[in-house]
Records
---
Amino acid sequence: MTNLKMVSTSAFFLLTSTVQPVVFATVAFYMYRTGDRAGTLLYAALGAGMMGVWSTTLFGSGGMIQWQRWQGTLELGVGSPPGMALIYLPFSLANAFTGMYALAATLVWGRLVFGVPLDFVHPWLFALALPATVISLGLMGLVLASTFILYRYANAMANLLEYPVWIASGLVFSTSLLPGWTRPISWILPPYWGVLALRHAALGGGVWVPLAMVVVLGIGSVAIATFTFRIFEHLARDRATLSLT
Amino acid sequence: MIEAIDLRRTYRTTTGVIRRKPLEVEAVRGISFAVEQGELFGLLGPNGAGKTTTIKMLITLLLPSSGEARVLGHDVVADAREVRKRIGYVFGGDRGLYERLSALDNLRYFAELYGVSGKAQRIRIDEVLELVGLKGREQERVEGYSRGMRQRLHIARGILHDPEVVFLDEPTIGVDPVGARELRRTIADLIAGGKTVLLTTHYMFEADALCDRIAVIAKGKIVGAGTPEALKAGVAEGRVTEIEVFGVGEAAVERLRALSGVTAVAVEDRDQKQLLVVQTTADRELTAPLLAELDGVEIGRVSSREPTLEDAYVALVGSE
């Protein structure tokens, strides 16, 4: 709860989290409504919502470490008894919680302004896939956060990762339009499986396989983050990068 | 309780923009000391002497380049987690708190990190707020706190889990005199409560007033150690002459240093004037020769006094 308070007291972070998804959604709706296929707008709404979730997770993870470094609390976290992954897991979940808003806001905006029908084929599976996807993305953010422990200017890396993951995950358009060699990259990304699960739950299609992949990649992210936090913490103590000076 | 054996730390960095050259800076160059249970041990030294680097190695935030250090018998590299459970630490300055949270939320968060939860957490938070004098202000956001209040909250955070050993890195830096006096009282209370404290400071009077023993550190090495009395006794045989001057040059200061019987010269800038603090051996009266070397320099008040810990410190650091 304290972690959620920390995240939610940043006016800039909240503004980005609330405004950005609505902007994405508006652009996506204008793009897709020129086509005349059934379900296109809902397909676009889910993609735009996931773009917001990913951006919130990415900048939340990078920002959380950088923000802690700036205010001098990163060293206090590292110097406390629990492992780093355990300390930052609640932060990642708090970011994911904010990300959940991004998706909800997009769907509500689409319904109210563009009249997108929210008739889900599998509403219960959608209700299951939504938190699973958002949490899985939050856990992927934990892996990213571990690298930010080592590098003082890792925020630049966060900027680099925003658009490629949107594209490789099929959030903007289908990954079938991408070259074949990019497919394995998509497969290891939780947003790819997450948006697939959500779209199938909403528009029809197999939900269980992508949902299982979302869960597996989420658990995998925790395992990887536990390992990388340990390695990067050791390196940061060696290279003296925990503080600003 | 705390043991450092030939502790060293080198920072590696680079210089240049296009052709980067590796650069090594030896911040700590073979420091050894031991702190006993219930003792308040001071690391005294100027800025950049290696005090913070030493303390960061002891609290497991930096890896030593070589040497060994143990806290409560646990190695700071191999048993970092065991060390972390048993120590508290406080850094000086404004940073190190969650600004937008209240003091109470800050303490709750750190209490959770150290496994203090439930009823024990409420009781302990009340105790530390009382100890540092922040009771009644705990609901306010930290961003509205004065520097003294922040520093007291830092101490509350550092002792929240009732650690046996507390590390205080320049806890009174930037705090006003009244606030600093209250902080020193809090530190004295920690010792009265049975804690072992390692304190770094560059304030002589603070070290003199609080510490059982002091190690003077300069350029990464310990240049003198002992009780404040023993360190003062090292220069007690001598005399200290203070000369107020207006616009003294480096050449004149060097002439004073070269004078037979002069052991150290420090220059303190005071607005338009400077104060020359000249330490001399006791066997000779050097006031007249000193003034003769300052021929041509406008001179104000001249006085002589007993050596203090500050003089001992200047003599030790100045000899490096």
---
Amino acid sequence: MMGACAADGAGSNFGTMNPSLPADPYSLQGHATVADADGALLRRMAAGDESALGALYDRWSALVHSVVVRIAADAGDAEELVEETFLQAWRQAGRYEGARGGVSTWLVVIARSRALDRVRLAGHRRAAAAEPLDSAESAGALPPADSTPLDAAEIAETRQIVHAAMEKLPADQRETLELAYFKGLSQSEIAESTGLPLGTVKTRCRLGLQKLREALSVLHEDRA
Amino acid sequence: MTNEPMHEELRDALAAEAVDALDVEEREQLLAHLAGCAACSAELETLRASAALLAFSAPHRPMDPARSAGVRSRLLARAAQDRESTTQIAPAPPLPAPGDDPDVTLIGAPPPPPTPAVVAPIVVPARREPDVIPITSARRRPSILPWLAAAASLVLLVGVGMYAASLRGRLATVEDRYQTAERERFALERRVREREATLAAISAPATRVIEMAAARPAAPSGRMFWDPSTNRWTFFAHNLPAVREGREYQLWLITADQQKIPAGTFRPDAGGSAIVQATYALAADALAAVAVTEEPAGGLPQPSGEVVVAGAAAATEEE
């Protein structure tokens, strides 16, 4: 297995893999300012500095809130989830090791996991199921007032790039990715809820994510 | 490695895993493969990084600023409390979540307490199989049932104890929030009362205004509002030079018979401004002038220093 995969893996097999890409073309780490500042905040949090937690909150609470609203819908839940997410970040700051994707990815992983748990616990998947992506509103929305303008601009830029990449995806692939990411459905659950054959779901998931990766890397290189 | 997946299946699996959508059995297969395949691990990493950016595709919904401020202050209060408690007590091991272990059924035992929301679980990206297999999933045999039951009771006891502890923790958090809110309320009320008193003192019908001109080139100025009906004196000063260490400004009420009554000491803020309030009963026609001098910190019974600002009281209109 291992041999078979390694022999042609990076070449023909994974056609979208590009060895010449920058070390981390897919995340905010490309922005030295935000990533560096986040790392410093995490170190201060690990040392027990609450003001660093406040600064991290100011920077990322809007993103975290947007994600949990998308997943859990209910506004009261969402605020509680945001609070719990940052509290968990505070408690685990010492264990954070500059993961790929940086602090924002780490926070979102915590928030998403908590929000999905909450939805499952409540047994209501009604959530935001039918809610379409509203790119006009989100792309043009003002940055949160409590971020510094530079951070807000960088975050807004990332948001716009991701939105553009998502819009380029065929609708069925986009929907499959959204069901997995925002609804926490497994592939067989997606097949069940959409009535599609499992094989189709798998293909859409793969094609969608590979195209997304491609689009995001190209946009990143344009900016670099 | 007999039932190795086809490449196409492998690519499907990597993408699904990147969005946590892989079903349990396939996931086990993939994890086994990843353990020995650097290329696939690297591929998964980049797919995961792209998947993580899906977060940015959520419609932008920042919190209402006022509510966000509330969440923020609660968060910081909880963090501070957390820090205090963890410095005193060693962190407790995480309570196993109910339903994590379908292999063990505790007949006759009450259900385990619900996992309290304040216990922060380790981050697991998805609901699927935990990487750590709990000890309690050992095969059941009739001979060890009593031991299992005893162990289960112990686990239950520990669980209930921790749940109770976490409830106490939550109660303490709520009490703390309440007290913080109460303190803020008292502080705000006090400030409002002070402002109301200031406004009343300078806007009363009988309030007299004494303008004071600079007595030296730095152009400091002051204005005294005196409401004889309440004996309230409110003094505003601007452009006062900073005072040296160990020195303060002192306010004087000077009567017609040249009595110099000390009315408080103060230091101006960085911009040279100061507000002084005092209550002192003085006959309506007794005031001749108001002055400020620089004195040793704490003030003196009689002025000794240079006059910084001074002004004569105009005759009362009502007399």
---
Amino acid sequence: METQAMTDVLTSLKERFPDAVEPSEYEGVVVAPARLLEVATFLRDELGYRYLSLVSGVDYPQPTTRFPARFEVVYHLFRESGGPLTLHVHADRDDPVVPSVVSVWPAANLHERETWDLMGIRFAGHPNLRRILLWEGFEGHPLRKDWHEVYYEADKKPFDSRYPNGRPVMAEARSPLGDNLRYPPGWSPQGWQSQAEEAVYAPLEAHLGGDGRRMPTDQVVVNLGPQHPSTHGVLRMIARLDGETIQQLEPVLGYLHRCHEKIGERNTWLANMPYTDRLDYVSSMSNNFGYAIAVEKLLGVEVPERAEYIRVIMAELTRIVRHLISIGSYTSDIGVYLTGMLYALEERELILDLFEMASGSRMMCNYFRFGGVARDLPDGWVALAKELVYERLPRRIDEMERFTFNEVFRARSVGVGVLPADKAIAYGCTGPLLRASGVPYDVRRAEPYSVYGELDWDVAVAYHGDIHDRFVVRFEEMRQSLRIIRQALERMPEGPVLSGKVQPALKVPAGEAYGRVEAPLGELGFYLVSDGSANPHRYRIRAPSFANLGVLGELCKGHLIADVVAILASIDITLGEVDR
Amino acid sequence: MYGLDILKTMGVTFGRFIMTFWDDLRWFGRRYTLQALPIRQSARGRGIFTVQYPREKLPLPENYRGFPFHVVDPDTGKSRCTACGICARVCPPQCIWIVRATDPQTGKALREPAEFTIDVSICMSCGLCAELCPFGAIKMDHDYSFVSYRRDSGEFLWNLERLSKPLAYHARIHPTAYLAEQAAMEKKAAKQ
């Protein structure tokens, strides 16, 4: 059924654009750059691909027998139901330019900016193509294969210096502080002004009355962050205000950027698993899940049934943790201080105890392996989990709901930050943010992975699209998660938890795969390209909170500055994942 | 009625407040005893379940992953390590450094490390080294509190001596895993 629909799509594409579309080496189609916008519009309007999940750049620095050295831009598109369509666009390696698809899918905005920033592929026609995670004083585009960091040691791990003659050198010795910085040619930090700031300040100049002498009293620019209690991390928002009303708001990202993807491409396949914990550090089990699924697609390994159930239980417990934190931090943001947060943390503590028993760590679980999980559940785990999900959590979630939905909460949230359904889809929003706008889209239902297809549960959805409904959805999702966990605990069979053995130097067959899961914050995707070696050729992450942030400026426009805090908290971001 | 939900919210807080004192009275005088903690800290706990760290510490689960340590074989007095290098190769942040010992006369590589260093300031406690060690030489420790005033003083570069801990220690902190290992070894010995 699925493949039939896919074949139909490919046939109709081929019929409509016989000279611009050709089958790709791995998945999907290759589109001629000159016709990309036409193809994109056709796909969106006539075939229903309204949701752009991810734009990634891939670098092929070496010419092969089949193609010259080139860049590839890869688009992953989805319909409300039905599998992915992958578009590949090739670009010249010396001067890579690809038309921007922001006019077709506004969701491409942040992804294209990131691809420009990290890969150096220009998107012609992009309204705002400047660096997003790095600053303007950064030399080069780090994800290119020929770009090397200052403490560069080798292209791929494991490094030869560690064994058999490994005498320790500390990182500071290799790149002393002060010498580990390079600026682009002709660039100086003196007199530098951030482009992001200029973009927001520019409309102010209009109020200066030309000669710059009039006091700009009509509008002011205010910086929220990067150190601001409401951002739960280091996010900065530049807001242009008229009185207290937001005229324009620009999130500035990258304060927690560590080039996770470059690290991932240096790492071996298995060594990436603990790094994925550090993406959304509140829900590490879900991150493990997404990465494991993507690699298993490439490997083609089967996961034993017991392991599938364990995975689902862990992922759903993680969802409860994440939503509790989200609710707790929202209440603390709108002025309840820490009461709600501590109630949430108390329940989280009990779930983390379970994680710690099973995986050995409370937050950085590193529990999933390709083809299963690291180890079986210890004795007594199931009994403790049952006690928690049957006895305590249902009562505590009810209590939390009584605690949250009161008049003060409603005054701050009903009708604030309304996101209509069409806009939510166009901006590529996922997770509770999308489902609160009346779109019952959930990866667990749209493209069931693991054992979700066999379990009985509902997709939580609400229809007003405001902050209030986002929390209605979160409460409902926690209850559905409890339902899933109860069924999984009852049905979980005995048996092995890992197919085969964990291989330290695993080689993955050449190919590409896009694995995605419904993480608590939205669709978490891993786009992996393997060249058949022990390290990923490309390791790209679709971080849900990064994609959801694209709509923040739109949501805040016209609201009061106090509402920005509430809207941001209702989107629910984790900076570890936004900045990667 | 306007304000009713606020009363409900305050009811939740008030309920918690009462439960805290109820719990205190229930466990009066034995809050931190071994009978009280497993209940106070579990899903059945009703009051606050904080402990007075560092005076009171919670027991860690057996699987807890702190930093790696070497298991010293009581028969030989040396680490079980054979310097095969799997841990150094699999280590995600590449913080394990091994110098393989060589025979001073023949120059041939020996099955033991001459130097074994772990930079615990980089170690991310992922446990892959312990998981993949074929000889059961590396285990994850339960000791988690290390401090130093300086990162670059070398105090975080742990050598073999600093890493070595007796087998009895491993048996004490990982009782289940230890028994399973012993059973597997006996089975192997019986086969031979």
